[in-house]
Amino acid sequence: MGRLDGKVAIITGASSGIGAGTAELFAKEGAAVVLTARRKDRLEALAEKIEKEGGRALAVAGDVREVEDVKNVVAQTMAIFGKIDILVNNAGILDKHMPAIRCPEELWNDVIATDLTGVFHYCREVLPHMVEAGKGSIVNVSSIGGIYMSAGVSYSAAKAGVNGLTRNIALQYAGTGIRCNSVNPGPTPTEANTPEKLATFDEEFREICAKHQFWAGESEVIDQAYAILFFAGDESRYVTGQWLVVDRGMNL
Fold first, then answer.
1. What residues have CB less than 8 Å from 37, skipping those under 6 apart?
2. Which of 148, 155, 173, 238 is catalytic?
3. Is 238 a known active-site residue?
4. CATH 3.40.50.720: does it fit domain 8-243?
């Protein structure tokens, strides 16, 4: 039996990286997965792959910043599967390690809207369905940048907000059967931080942050996916409001 047999999970940012890896893992563990992100072609390709491997998947394109898109994903999930057991808020963008004095207004607003407000949008729309069911697990993908503030100013602020939102929701729903936890990845190879992308990051601030960290090497996407799986499944049924750092000990 799979660890998520019979469960339905919405996964945001599922077109690549940690989101895609989590979707594949969840499907292998028995969950029906609803894949959402902005790149429809990527979502449909992943859904096709999961179904060919015997899983169940639904691809619904949408932008976490747009409330109507979020409502559409939730509505389609309910119409097709009839419930939402798990929500994985993974969608996010990076801010190129921009320090406060060099962070443009547009970048700040975009990062906050995507990485924090988007998480709020999905929690707000999914929670009523979990309340009605009397159970559910929300897993927010935050970052070590939201705990140690070792990223750019907007990303650190957004991810710290995600961790605060996580505990606030956990507190609100403690004892109801609804849990909310966050996974905080360290450096993980995804399309968002390829060598080409990293070359565009603010080098001065990145070097400042690196002086305060013990570099233990990158984690893999699957390492983050397994951490998300733990919070999503029943093995963590008594765990809520926790921030799990998955960074190979680089911040010890």
1. 12, 13, 14, 15, 16, 19, 43, 61, 62, 91
2. 155
3. no
4. yes
